[in-house]
């Protein structure tokens, strides 16, 4: 590429260089550099902390690689979340103006893990600062209509106890699924955790939910209580032909998105296409196998396609193992978690290993 072409790419609003794709720390960082939980004397353990089952789950390479793919599958089947994205998200607003690009769509998903990592791995002050930021930016995310085809569902509000709780629960539940169904641990195949350990994980998740607006009585303390919540709010999960319609304008959100991305395509966006192939094709198939059968049905997966997905998981086990290995995992970590997220994960793994070693020594003694 000539010097002039490189300059044109950097200045083009639709052009995407490698540097732009990777992004600076500022793309993920909110309210200062995060401080790792338990990293120094006087620094508390934050929401979860070293040695916890929550850190064991979220620090595993499989979770790092598959977290976004699994989260988006479940979270977008929760109708209020989809409605909030449809009506208020910057990608929706750009799509309505015909200004949405492929990079915009990718970058929106790219920021997901890295922005949340300080709440999962940081000390209490870090977690509260980031949670407060997210609460503030979600203040306007509310509407009177979730689905024009189902007015009986009522409205949504991102900062309401119900919708805020489900946003947190769907994040954390999908990480457990990724760990149990895709994570290679030692020489064994991915496997489910014991029931008691799964309940311990959900009890810790309560601490995360408490960072956001919530009703204490609704927060689950076990897998059984979480399943009861899914049953209680079953009508709020799934998809319909009218859910994509923006109530204010009558436009189809997904069509606007598709048309705008095509209209604003630039050849340099090919590198975005490659990354979207990884996230939306290569990783999504194992992610679909990792989520629950209920979630696959809510995502519109037919029984025949579900059988094919579950079979594909077994056929793809060598690939699933490969993406958890050092160089490949580090590539996805940097791409999707950002510089601060990479630093937090790498340092947290050291603290977590030390905490587990101390726990084993205490048990042996």
TrEMBL record:
UniProt-annotated stretches for the region Disordered: 1-23
Highest taxon of the lineage: Bacteria
Biased composition range(s): Polar residues: 1-16
A single GO molecular function term of this UniProt record: oxidoreductase activity
Segments forming domain ER-bound oxygenase mpaB/mpaB'/Rubber oxygenase catalytic: 55-233
InterPro entries: MPAB/Lcp_cat_dom
Name of the featured protein: DUF2236 domain-containing protein
Organism, scientific name: Sphingomonas zeae
